[in-house]
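Q: Could you fold this chain for me?
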Amino acid sequence: MDPIHRGPEEFGHDGNGFAEGAGRRRPSRDPLTPDFGQQTPQQARIVPLVAGDLLLTVNPVDGSEVEPCPPGEQPAEPVRRTPAERADRERAAAPPVPPGPPVLQLPLLQREDERERLTRLLARGRSVRLTGPAGSGRTALLNAVAADCTALAPDGVVRLNGHKRTVTDLLHGLFEAVHDAPLHRPDRELLLEKLRSTGAVVVLDDLEFGGAALDELLDATPECAFLLAATPDVAAPGPDSHLEEVFLDGLDRAASVGLMERVVERKLTEEEANWAGDLWFESEGLPLRFVQAGALLRQTDLLSTDPTAYDEYGYLENRPAGGPPAAGDIDGTAVEEVVLPSLGEGAAPAALLGSRLSEAARETLRFAFALGGEVPHQAHLPALVGDTHADAALGELAGCGLLSPAGSRYRLAAGVLAQLEAAGYGEGATDRARTVAQHYAWWAGHPSVTPARVVAEADAIVAAMAQLVPGHGAGQTSVAVLLARSASPAFAAGLHWSAWERSLRIGQEAGRIAGEVAEEAYFHHELGVLALCTGNLDRARAELETSISMRGALADKSGAVAGRRALALVEDRSGRPAAGGVMAIGEIPANPLLASPPPGLPAVMPVSMPRTYPDETVVMSPQGAPPVADDREGGRFAVLGGARRNLVAAGAGVLLAGVLGTVVTLGLTSNTDPQGDPGASTEQSVTEGGDTDEELPAEEPTDGTTPSARTSGSASASSTTPGPSGSESVPAGGSGASSPGASASETAPSSTGGSSPDKPSPTRTTPGPTKTTPPPTKTTQPPTSPPSTPTDTTEPPTPTESETTDPSVPDTSDSASGPSGATGASPSVI
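A: Sure. Below is the predicted structure, expressed as structure tokens.
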């Protein structure tokens, strides 16, 4: 499809004016009022595809969506392509034939031995690595060997290009070349399964990696024989790769001169032969140098002809005015021939060759330099250069040896980029890169352009974005953002995911520099979806959380919802939550009191309970038990029941509090044994309501409750039945004031071993984890002395008889006190 002149079928309409998939004819517009007709909005290109067991919906508006593949959406089993289908695909993947005069087809000179050796090794199933310098003719030799091996393997010959490709790219490229699986990117397991049974001769040009990566490629395809072409600077294969090494040297002098004569299409003169000999010493016999030098001689012949000889055909009308003088009379002096180029110009002929080409060809070189050596497709050259016949410039450049094929497209030949930079072709490179980016942004986002065509221009598109980031000119980074936003969905739908990732990363950086937060959030979302589809869950979580936070700040509800859905799938696959997420079942949290419950159980919210002292925290035990003081470091929250691990944690805390209370109480009773002094007794005075306020500590609130409200149970001497029904939850630090109607004195001195019949029966505290505040320091006096007022001391408060008790533990005290406290009370055991 020509991006400039499009047919009606390329817009989704047939010649009769019907839209594809529509059930009615589109109403025609009134030719008298064309401005009042409704324009048909362009639909977003939404492409669903299957990646492993996930259904990926490429959405260029809000971001791609991913979900587990429904049962009815699984793709069919990949099937092998037939020989005819492989041949058609190979023809479609070949570089396009440039318009204009046909490019000269050169023979393969002085490579018969290497050709036979490579074919023989591949026929035996051996993999070979062909190493040669840039411009040594590796591509031409690979083409000849591939033609000799068409019938060696059941899956035929597969041509791949390793220029800017990773191991994963090549594995998926090999899978796609052999199997027919539209809109299906298999996961790692299925990919390796299919490649293990693939038997093909894989011809891989421009290999850019070695070592462990190359070993991975070879191990994944045990039934394939590889012919790899690389330069000497590429890393060597591993010691266990078992690759045969073949080195490619330059041509000898006779073959070099013969190659130049085929390019010039005539015999060389003696002077030209001597010049070719000097060039052979300079270039070490690289064939590319002699192809370019032959192009220089051919241009010299063209410039030496009569400029009026072909005027009637207009053949020389585009000849540049700044070229060498042509034959004829110039200032009365006869010029018979053009001087030969110098040896330096022959060794680096790009600048001289470009100066003798048409203006469209020179402008194409400038655009190629701005893109780092990548040449746009010939269909884009008229729009970029501004000349309707600029597509013919590709043929001029290819005929001069300034271009070399790279997969399905062309790029600058080896060494040409540096020569153009020295010749000043880099002036205005940034402006040209921005022009290319603007053109590709419009073209890649057009609904009529298929993802496969965008993938074919992936190298040029990514190069245009890379030249603009970081951008120093106004609007450069914004153009890069626009191009990345238009091209990245097409890369995803075209299954070229390495280009998808590169464009997303460049777009994210460009959005950050340009301050376009919404676009930056989109790129973070897409990077998270890409990482999820490739199995990198940690990176997916980080990218999606960043995108959700940015879109939440922008109030982008639809984008935030898409991000949360993808993040939920990440959590489901990883088995553990992100910060603030839901914890997986069976995972042990670092802090059980702050952990979230597993899915399906009610959430637990931290509740801060009232406390008497700053270092105390009351933890609500499950099943509605009374509050228990938690003296652990940092224990500032209460955990309500709801999850099993919270029940265990709360129970452990209650048990610990009970054990500590037991130890403290036993120590207290052993130190205050009344048997040591028969005439002494321990008592606690309770005064009238007016005196009660003076006895309470300063921090203790006076809420009007009686001391007996801290405990519950029967007033009889026997212990009460333990359980929630016989206890009453009272917050820690309750008031010790007397209840209304209470007598002036609730307790009186009692003798050891019994209680007075006219006094209230001694009661024990209710079993359970009840925390009471430490009472004031008591004084010990003889039985006949009146109750004394408690006095404050500088010593820290010690646990008293009012600690929690349990009826299952025998009473170790020989005396009992009134309701306000009982000496020797039994500790509470949970």
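A (continued): Residues 617 and 630 are 5 Å apart (CA to CA).
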